[in-house]
Design goal:
single chain; 1236 residues; mainly beta; eight-stranded antiparallel beta sheet; 12 helices; disordered N terminus; repeat; Fibrinogen-like_C
């Protein structure tokens, strides 16, 4: 049977050289042992006919010290043109024996169908020589072949009853003599067709359903199919789904078109198109080569042809045999490989020709002498082109382009008298000529490189040797017999493989992930990851974070960011707006719906810039998602109460219909007002169901994550008189990241969490955060039979990533200059792919180790994944692990920790690592999942206390913050002020604020006490138009109506030299004087702080009174007085804070520097100049030195654009709708701002 494994009985053997044969007792064969042990020996087996080989076994020579430790296995149908058998995807060599007697048995992953086998020793016992006994296992192989000469084809007429079957299965094997040709074609009357065509050694499958082409090129699947070896093809077509398999590599795709099945004629042709011109888009070249075992839906086509059945029609000459080409290729394995052949000395001309194929852009092809005294010439590849260079005459010619594409290319060199001609691919346009005076003298030609020993002047070159294949080598129009050279030693060679071309496509399969472009050389491949959103040797690891939460905790501010929700998974990144409380995804405009009923509904589809799979990954990752859906109605109902049938509904991402509306719950056919009992008609559960002839609405947020986002809305009740509706879909808002803070605490060295086996055969990435006080411990480990992967803390400053994929253990180590066991969060990222392994800790440079070019590449694990420990319960980790991701998928550490002894869910102490993200006096507060910044005592707001709180002050505006009521002082009038309230008497005041104004003098800030002491900060002019002065005036017990300090602000053109000015994009930043306040200054019983105009009667100095006449007009921002933020209290806590506001006072973003602020370059008059600055005032009693930095912005009319934010409430839903409809065109233009 096919699966039966029995030793092959009928065979003959011969070897590469004379062998020493031993005859042990009991008539047992002693084995093969050549007299000379070198890498050019081989043992060949002829099985008599093509046989399916399933396994091989080897032993050493009987009773000897001769055995082979590694070998290559080759196969052939003709005894020539061999092909190497590969294990996995890149392993060439088999591991052999370690002694003479034990048997090493290999079951082949993919069986070999061939007549000849060849064992080529690579290494052997260093204390002996080559010695082998072999056994080959397999079974008979049924082979039906047919040969085509490039001018013929075979036509099979199908059974008409079965021709319209929705499922077709076609299988065959082919061996081609040419790199181009049509293998299969079938066509229909309406343009439907299916064609399989070979183009430049690559197979393409073209399927057309209803005049829409679906072209799948198998260079995605396989290439180099013109190697004159058998290749298998399987096409499975069901409806519009197609599986296309070439040599075990499968590509799945959907054929495009209007129909789900092919409407084809009853004829199927193999080897060509029977009627030229029937399909004008395809090549006319027929197939030249052989087919084997052609089956169509189980029917043996070649058997029908052999028996001359009526279903078969043959065009041209076709034979039931397969002629083997007599081509002997040569493989140049390394840059030190060469082939030296005798030339034709004494001739008056030279003609050399050959074919080559390679992936390398550079390499020496041919070199030789032209004359005894003139030196040699060089023929070499340079940047994929053929160049000719002579020692005496230098560079001569350049021919061809892109010759390193892995295809066969022909080169001919002709030298006659004083003329050199080079022709590439028989193309006259690619030929080059040069006229130089020379005499012909050439005794040796060096192909591919030069001998490493000896001084051969014509071969000395800086060009590297050629790596690739050559064939059809001819010198003086006489073909070179490479078999004779191999057997008899005519000529000289090194590091060659004769009678096979060992070129491989290292981009097949393509290990470049996420659309990375693969390019290759002879020994390796390279991935171009540009514009993919990924990085690394195989474009595996994402560049972007998985959520806004991750960006937030890197300290990023709100803005547009790319996020990659599944990390290194198949989904790509997409753009969202992060307001650092969550993602904002898409916004849709208000739309009107009319004349819709159940027979003719109004249906709208919402298309997001991200795919539904990307959105689903983002939603699953988030803590909470919501989307506002507003339905405006006038005589348009959502539900027909009589029959209970919905009249309008929406559809979510799972394509399910939903009849609950914004603010309601799933499975509850109600609106928000129905749940709250606030509908305009209590008999209905939605406002719109009241069916009134006036505009109303049902609006609210949809927050059930499994149903989001909204993809479709259907409206059916707008066809009655005066009936209409409108709808508006808000952006998809998501916040939080369920995995970012997911953590576990490991309390004992023997505790661990276990998870299912990690599957990362060809690419694997692991990332996590950890913190610990221990000096060592294993973070995670996963074992296989031999393979393993492990990440561990080896010492307080060293992390190691170790693994084995079959090439022996390998380790990447990163050493940190600082201790990693400092109980702070540290980030670890490890990646292993077929090219390299890398490890990175925090922001330290990444360390990486390259993988061997032809080693094992598949990581095969089978045990459980251990986190925080090992299977042996030794070297366990003590500390916390957080946000553990494997290939982009997060592991739920907390859920597993709940049921695991010695491990606790969660991990406290985030502020020790993230507390520095809280700015401007914000305090870090611990949370179970993460932390928060408490901005209570900060003048700023936002998640990190970085958002400026600004307000615009109009003429006469006054904002007063009262520190203590007067009656408290009256009750304690007999006591000293400092005895009843600590803050009432301050020896140090820290005042910071920013301002922007166009007016001087201006009173910026005023602090008063119950004892009529005060402090004023005034902006005034000093001189006509040149300088401004910031004065701090006050009245204390020690200083009555005096100037406590001042700082002078100079214009850039004032000519002063002791006040340096820095100009930056039109904004003038002033470095100001330091000033010292007198010691002993003390404020007693502080009463209030006023921003803007002082409204109450106050005994102040003349300059303060003058500045107070207009108060302050302009912008104040981020005002802080010790731990009090009066401006923030007035804007955000006016109802609870002791703040009194008089006059027009509006919150604004005027304190934020905008682009417009920095673009002015024109000089303006000083009386309209805008003066702004950030002032930090610190008043010391004993040590009173304050530096004040002032920024001056020269811009007219800026504040009219930065007035208060906010909107007025509309009087009714109808007016709101009309307003929105009137803005519809404008919104269409502006909505791009919210798209990603």
């Amino acid at each position: 049977s096919y699966n039966e494994e029995t030793p092959a009985k009928r065979h003959s053997t011969f070897a590469s050289a004379p062998s020493a044969i031993s005859h042990p007792p009991n008539n047992r064969a002693g084995g093969w042992s050549p007299l000379v042990s070198n890498k050019y020996q081989w043992l060949q087996i002829d099985l008599g006919e093509r046989t399916e080989i399933t396994a091989v076994a080897t032993q050493g020579g009987y009773g000897s010290s001769d055995w082979v430790t590694s070998y290559l296995l080759m196969f052939s149908d003709s005894g020539q043109n061999w092909k190497q058998y590969r294990q996995e995807e890149s392993i060439w060599a088999f591991s052999g024996n370690t002694n003479a007697d034990s048997v090493v048995y290999y079951k082949l992953q993919h069986s070999i169908k061939a007549r000849f086998l060849r064992f080529v020793p690579l290494d052997w016992n260093p204390n002996g020589r080559i010695g082998m006994r072999i056994e080959v296992y397999g079974c008979t192989y049924r082979s039906e072949v047919v040969g085509f000469d490039g001018k013929s084809c075979l036509i099979y007429t199908l059974n008409k009853k079965l021709s319209n079957a929705l499922k077709d299965v076609i299988s065959l094997k082919f061996k081609t003599m040419q790199s181009d040709g049509i293998l299969l074609h079938r066509e229909g009357q309406n343009g439907d067709h299916i064609t399989m065509e070979l183009t430049k050694g690559k197979l393409s499958l073209l399927i057309n359903l209803g005049n829409s082409y679906s072209l799948i090129k198998s260079n995605i699947v396989t290439s180099l199919l013109d190697d004159q070896h058998w290749h298998s093809v399987l096409i499975e077509h069901f409806n519009n789904q197609v599986n296309f398999t070439v040599d075990k590599h499968t590509h799945h795709f959907h054929a495009k078109g209007e129909f789900s099945y092919l409407d084809l004629d009853y004829e199927l042709s193999f080897g060509g198109i029977p009627m030229p011109g029937k399909s004008g888009t395809l090549s006319r070249r027929n197939f030249h080569g052989c087919f084997e075992n052609i089956y169509y839906n189980g029917v043996n086509i070649i058997d029908l042809a052999r028996r001359h059945k009526s279903q078969i029609y043959i065009v041209g000459n076709m034979s039931f045999s397969c002629l083997e080409p007599q081509v002997v290729p040569v493989t140049f394995l390394s840059s030190s490989s060469f082939l030296a052949l005798r030339g034709t000395s004494g001739q008056d001309e030279i003609f050399v020709s050959f074919q080559f194929r390679t992936w390398n852009k550079e390499g020496l092809l041919l070199s030789s002498k032209l004359h005894q005294s003139s030196g040699g010439f060089l023929l070499y590849l340079s940047d994929g082109r053929v160049e000719v260079h002579t020692k005496c005459w230098g560079f001569i010619s350049l021919s061809g382009a892109g010759l390193n594409n892995g295809q066969w290319h022909s080169v001919s060199l002709s030298v006659k008298r004083n003329r050199i001609t080079v022709r590439v691919d028989n193309d006259v346009t690619s030929s080059a000529h040069a006229f130089i005076p020379l005499q012909i003298y050439s005794d040796v030609f060096y192909f591919g490189g030069c001998p490493s020993s000896g001084n051969i002047s014509e071969c000395n070159t800086s060009f590297g040797g050629f790596q690739g294949c050559m064939r059809h080598i001819s010198i003086g129009n006489k073909a070179v017999d490479m078999i004779s050279i191999q057997q008899n030693g005519f000529g000289n060679f090194s590091d060659l493989q004769i009678d096979l071309c060992g070129i491989t496509d290292r981009c097949l399969p393509n290990y470049c992930e996420h659309g990375g472009e693969c390019s290759q050389s002879w020994n390796s491949f390279h991935c171009n990851c540009a514009n993919t959103g990924y990085q690394g040797a195989t474009c595996h690891y994402p560049i972007y974070e998985q959520s806004c939460e991750a960006y937030k905790h890197r300290g990023n501010t709100s803005g547009f960011y790319n996020i990659d929700s599944d990390g290194s998974g198949p989904l790509g990144p997409f753009l969202v707006y992060c307001n650092m409380t969550g993602e904002v995804i898409n916004c849709f405009n208000l739309q009107l719906a009319k004349s819709a009923n159940r027979e003719n509904p109004h249906t709208v589809f919402f298309k997001y810039s991200a795919s539904l799979d990307q959105l689903q990954a983002t939603i699953n990752l988030a803590d909470h998602c919501e989307q506002e859906l507003a339905y405006y109605c006038k005589k348009s109902r959502l539900l027909d109460k009589l029959d209970g049938i919905p009249l309008s509904w929406w559809i979510g991402r799972t394509n399910e219909t939903h009849t609950y509306w914004g603010g309601s719950l799933p499975a509850v056919q109600k609106c928000t007002c129905g749940l709250e009992g606030s509908c305009i008609d209590s008999q209905h559960y939605c406002n719109c169901d009241a069916d009134r002839d006036e505009w109303t609405n049902d609006t609210g947020f949809l927050s059930y994550k499994d149903h989001l986002p909204v993809t479709e809305i259907v409206i059916t009740d707008t066809d009655r008189p005066n009936s209409e509706a409108a709808y508006k879909l808000g952006p998809l808002l998501c916040r939080g990241d369920r995995t970012f803070w997911n953590s576990a605490s490991f309390n004992t060295e023997t505790s661990y969490l276990h998870f299912p086996t990690f599957h990362g055969e060809f690419s694997a990435d692991v990332s996590f955060f950890f913190k610990t006080t221990a000096s060592s411990g294993v973070f995670l480990e996963n074992l296989g039979i031999q393979d393993f992967i492990r990440i561990e803390l080896q010492s307080p400053s060293e992390v190691a990533f170790s693994f084995d994929v079959g090439n022996g253990p390998s380790e990447v180590i990163v050493q940190s200059p600082n201790s990693l066991n400092d109980n702070q969060w540290h980030y670890v990222k490890a990646e292993r792919n077929v090219k390299e392994a890398s490890l990175q800790i925090d922001q330290l440079p990444q360390r990486s180790h390259s993988a061997p070019p032809d080693g094992h590449i598949r990581l095969q694990l089978n045990s459980q994944l251990f986190v925080g420990g090992t299977a042996s319960r030794q070297k366990g980790f003590l500390g916390c692990i957080r946000s553990l991701r494997l290939n982009g998928m997060a592991l739920d550490l907390e859920e597993r920790a709940k049921i695991t002894p010695g491990v606790e869910p969660g991990c406290p102490g985030h502020c020790s690592s993230y507390g520095n993200l809280c700015h401007n006096g914000g305090k870090c507060r611990e949370k179970y999942s993460g932390f928060s910044c408490d901005c209570t005592f900060s003048a700023y707001a936002g998640p990190f206390c970085k958002k400026e709180i600004s307000a615009y002050f109009w003429t006469g505006t006054s904002v007063t913050y009262n520190f203590q009521e007067y009656y408290t002082l009256a009750k304690n009038s007999s006591s000293h002020a400092s005895s009843f309230y600590a803050d009432m008497t301050l020896a140090r005041e820290a005042i910071t604020f920013a301002f922007r104004t166009t007016r001087t003098p201006s009173l910026l800030l005023h602090v008063s006490s119950f004892y009529k002491e005060y402090l004023s900060v005034i902006l005034t002019r000093n001189g006509e138009f040149s300088d401004w002065k910031l004065k701090i005036s006050g009245n204390t017990k020690e200083h009555h109506n005096c100037q406590l300090g001042f700082s002078q602000i100079s214009r850039p053109d004032s000519g002063t030299t002791n006040r340096p000015v820095v100009s930056l994009d039109g904004i003038f930043v002033f470095q100001l004087h330091q000033f010292i306040l007198s010691s002993g200054t003390e404020f007693n019983a502080i009463k209030s702080l006023t921003l803007g105009k002082i409204l109450e009667n106050s005994d102040v100095d003349e300059e303060t009174m003058k500045a107070n006449s207009q108060g302050f007009v302009g912008c104040l921002s981020s005002v802080q007085f010790n731990h009090i933020a009066p401006l923030k209290a007035a804007l955000h806590h006016s109802s609870s804070a002791p703040v009194i506001v008089k006059g027009r006072f509006t919150e604004s973003n005027c304190g934020t520097l905008t682009a417009a602020d920095s673009t002015s370059t024109n000089a303006i008059r000083s009386d309209s100049a805008i003066i702004g600055g950030v002032i930090a005032v610190v008043i010391f009693i004993l040590l009173c030195i304050t530096a004040i930095a002032i920024r001056i912005y020269k811009k007219k009319g800026i504040y009219s654009k930065n007035e208060a934010k906010g909107s007025e409430n509309e009087d009714s839903a109808e007016s709101a709708l009309k307003s929105e409809l009137s803005m519809q065109n404008t919104a269409n233009e502006n909505q791009k701002e919210y798209f990603f």
